[in-house]
Amino acid sequence: MYVCSCFAVTDKQIAEHAANGACTPRQIASATKAGTDCGSCVRTIQGLLGRGTCPRRELLEKGRAAATVLAPDTELTKAA
């Protein structure tokens, strides 16, 4: 089934990119251009990707937590 009519991207292509690590509509757009023209397919892409775990998202969250510990907010350190 075509998910993105503008760029002829199918649900199978979305699934392949998701299996290879794409876990956001933006990552799918980078790989396929789906969602970058009229945008009507973005919600469908979100639905296909679901709300499951995303290895990249988990790594980003861990990185942010580590950055917060290593480099505390400068505004707080200036006040002290």
What structural class is derived from the secondary structure elements? mainly alpha
Give the overall average pLDDT.
Answer: 80
Helix residue percentage: 55-70%
| Overall outline | elongated
Largest sheet: 2 strands, antiparallel
Rg is: 18 Å
* Low-confidence segments: none
Care to count the β-strands?
Answer: 2
CATH topology, anyone?
Arc Repressor Mutant, subunit A
Strand order of the largest sheet: 1-2
CATH architecture term: Orthogonal Bundle
CATH level 1 class label: Mainly Alpha
Number of helical runs? 5
Strand content: 5-15%
Query: What separation lies between the terminal Cα atoms?
Result: 59 Å
User: What is the total number of structural domains?
Assistant: 1
Spell out the helices and strands N to C.
EEHHHHH
By CATH, the superfamily comes out as BFD-like [2Fe-2S]-binding domain
Keywords:
single chain; 80 residues; mainly alpha; Arc Repressor Mutant, subunit A; Bacterioferritin-associated ferredoxin; iron-sulfur; BFD-associated_ferredoxin
Give a structural overview.
The chain is mainly alpha-helical. It has a single domain, classed as BFD-like [2Fe-2S]-binding domain (Arc Repressor Mutant, subunit A, Orthogonal Bundle), CATH 1.10.10.1100. It contains 5 helices and 2 strands; from the N terminus they run E-E-H-H-H-H-H. The protein has a two-stranded antiparallel sheet. The termini are far apart.
Give the arrangement of secondary structure elements.
Layout (H helix, E strand, L loop, with lengths): L1 E3 L4 E2 H9 L5 H8 L9 H8 L5 H16 L3 H6 L1
Antiparallel strand pairs: 1-2
Protein name: Bacterioferritin-associated ferredoxin
InterPro entries: BFD-associated_ferredoxin, BFD-like_2Fe2S-bd_dom, BFD-like_2Fe2S-bd_dom_sf
Keywords: 2Fe-2S, Electron transport, Iron, Iron-sulfur, Metal-binding, Transport
